[in-house]
Amino acid sequence: MNYKIALLKGDGIGPEIVDSAVKVLKVIEQKFDFSLDFTEYPIGGCAIDRCGIPLPEETVTGCQNSDAVLLGAVGGPQWDTQPSKNRPEKALLGIRAALGLYVNLRPAKLYPPLIDECPLKREKVENGFDILIVRELTGGIYFGERGTREGKYGREAYDTECYSVMEIDRIMKAAFDCARLRNKKITSVDKANVLESSVLWRQIFNEYAAQNPDIECVSMFVDNAAMQLVRDPSQFDVIVTSNMFGDILSDEASQLTGSIGLLPSASLGKANPGLFEPIHGSAPDIAGTGKANPIATVLSAAMLLRYALHQEEAAKVIESAVNHTIEQGWRTCDMSVNPSSAPLNTAEMTDAIIKNIL
Ligand code: IPM
Ligand code: MN
Q1: What residue's CA is closest to ligand 1, atom 8?
Q2: HEC string of 51-74?
Q3: Can you give the pTM of this predicted structure?
């Protein structure tokens, strides 16, 4: 088997962490009977510099013609003055929409050796937690009608949250499929006490709950969910929620794991190639310093093997190598508040992971 992988390295630490993940994938490829062909395409700020726009056509077509996409991160202060429709972040939204990637899987679990990096008191997380946030990714307020206009108080700007039955239905299906393979519990997060779109969301979730008696189903308002995440994260298994609530709750959950530098994500659609990326940003302040943690991107590569290429065994080899590396005590500087030894840099962490594969 030969697979085509599109690499969208992007800006800031993007190129460094994608290089790390590719180094790991090249080792994996030697151990399994498949090969990977990597092709780079520009995205984000570097694409603005090169082609004038953050998501050039060649990038979209390149991704569409691949088996999977591995992305680093986009954005940086030098592009903050771009008009909003030409910002690097627009490229992310654009590629998600162009590939129809409506399911965003964001796992957040506590690695036992990192329990003291979790900002919660030890006794609150002694039982660990393993959460999968299933975030709707191509609808809601991110893609709703927007604009500026003259209103009652003069000039105003607006965005709208809109969800169709079709969009809610397909994300629920994905979430229930995930829950069935895990601990069979789903918490649907909405704001149905205020928002009409959430009333519809909750109604469809309730229909799924009635049809799937093997899954424990809970509905929760988003403000409560944000609180429950820091009160007792172990109560959650799968969380299914809208685009914006999922954006916010996944950053909150990431901090509970000890570092946002650990969290991968998978964005999936129906037939199109999936896109795999760390949930953190481009961290321009540490770009080029060797401080970037490659783990989130390496784990994103594992998700790519699992969900896009159906190479489950290869995915597991990467995940257990990362587990092992953390158990051995190796840390990058974001992973350790009180390091007992000097933290590893990006290349050293990558090599520590690779040693655990060989
Ligand atoms: C994320 C990011 C993006 C989002 C931004 C950069 C558009 O925060 O992937 O979580 O809000 O989806
Ligand atoms: Mn985010």
Answers
A1: 247
A2: HCCCCCHHHHHHHHCCCEEEEEEC
A3: 0.96
